[in-house]
Specification:
Layout lengths: L1 H14 L4 H12 L9 H6 L9 H31 L27 H9 L1
């Protein structure tokens, strides 16, 4: 269903037409004696309210980038989930793997020997 909605949005944007609901709202407004919408729904109610009209193209590009990144993230999570289920481990059996660069040292801080640390605590 989500793919259908995205496809519908892409077709509307590519064709430069308004959503059919914009036409319905316009007709109902005119039937009620109000002026019709001068532009589309987003151009009338969103642009200039949530972001300045002069940044409309930038806002559209940002929205598109967020959508693409979210789809890539969902794909990556799905691929990881499929790979995990293929190994026979379920999510409850996942083991945390800590890279060597993040491993925590258990000894005293650099420059402090165990003997020096004991003397400092004794004082």
């Amino acid at each position: 269903m989500h793919l259908v909605a995205v496809g519908w949005g892409v077709v509307l944007i590519a064709a430069g037409t308004n959503c059919p609901l914009t036409y319905v709202e316009d007709r109902l407004r005119r039937g009620a004696g109000q002026p019709g919408l001068p532009r589309g729904f987003i151009d009338t109610y969103i642009e200039g309210v949530l972001y300045p009209a002069r940044h409309a193209e930038r806002a559209r590009m940002l929205a598109g980038a967020v959508i693409v990144l979210s789809w890539l993230g969902a794909y990556r999570c799905g691929a990881r989930r499929r790979a995990t289920s293929a190994t026979g481990r379920d999510d409850g059996e996942r083991r945390a793997e800590v890279p060597a660069s993040v491993a925590v040292s258990v000894g005293p801080p650099r420059g402090i020997t165990r003997e020096r640390g004991r003397r400092a605590r004794a004082r």
